[in-house]
Amino acid sequence: MKLPPSMRSRKRYIAFRLISEKSVDEKAIAEAMVRNIATLFGEVSAVECGLKLEKFDGEKGIVRCNLEALEKVMIALTLIDKIGEGNVALLTLGMSGTLRGCKKKLEVLA
C-alpha dihedral over 72, 84, 26, 69, to 10 degrees? Predict the structure, then answer.
């Protein structure tokens, strides 16, 4: 049984750009995000964030999280400095309440 919309947690979408020495695949970046949140805020917070990598094309991507955990997720994303063997920098481009709005921000900044 699905929860009614008034009882669901609100989502936010974060657009980001990844600068890296080597190419990074979708699975590696998703694991790095979850690992970094768990390291900084604990495993319980990592689960409560509801973090999901919605889209990633090798350079730019979109992450979904719960509204309550938005600040934690943005801090954790900014502090990612290594994925696998390569050094990386993750820059936050913008945040939106809808996936469509977040995609528009990515197109404007492309």
Answer: -10
CA angle 31, 32, 34 (to 5 degrees): 65
The count of structural domains within the chain is 1
Q: Which domain holds residue 91?
A: 10-108
Q: Which amino acid is at 106?
A: L
The verdict on residue 4 lying in a domain is no
* C-alpha to C-alpha distance for 93 and 32, rounded to whole angstroms: 19
Write out pLDDT tens, residues 8-50: 889 999 999 999 988 999 999 999 999 999 999 999 989 999 9
Q: How many CB atoms lie within 10 A of CB 109?
A: 11
